[in-house]
From TrEMBL:
Name of the molecule in the record: Prostaglandin E synthase 3
EC number assigned by the record: 5.3.99.3
UniProt KW Lipid biosynthesis keyword: yes
Taxonomic lineage: Eukaryota, Metazoa, Chordata, Craniata, Vertebrata
Keywords for the protein's UniProt record, in alphabetical order: Cytoplasm, Fatty acid biosynthesis, Fatty acid metabolism, Isomerase, Lipid biosynthesis, Lipid metabolism, Prostaglandin biosynthesis, Prostaglandin metabolism
Catalytic activity: prostaglandin H2 = prostaglandin E2
UniProt organism field: Poecilia reticulata (Guppy)
Amino acid sequence: QQYDHIMAYCRHGPFPTLSATAKWYDRRDFVFVEFCVEDSKDVHVQFDKSKFEFRCVSGKDKYNNEIELFGEIDPKQSKHSRTDRSVQCCLRKAEAGKSWPRLTKEKAKFKWLSVDFNNWKDWEDDSDEDMSSFDNFSEMMNNMGGDDLPDLDGAEYGAEEV
């Protein structure tokens, strides 16, 4: 057993590459993936049509996830953002309105990947009536003088109306 440990050390160096824990959920036009890595540095996200790669460093740990996707995405319209607690990826579907039953092309269970049930929504069952109700609710909240939600990029965040 000690030999196996030494061989693993030699193959990967003192700090082997790990798979970052991730959660995902599906929406009509996007798929969202959150990599749960605190205090990440050297974050690299590469989007391609049928896959994407996530890499970063946190402390002494190196993380690398390469994901062959269930469907195709628009790499130019896909984005990512980093916080102190995670890296959020927003993948623009190439075919909007098509449900993804899983994130990965391969129908397999990955220990590092789970469904984000807090954000999951069965949007396929939404009707136009449901969407118009949401629009009416949003308009009502705006008319009541409620704060608008900030943009993802934080532009005008904290600005007050006069």
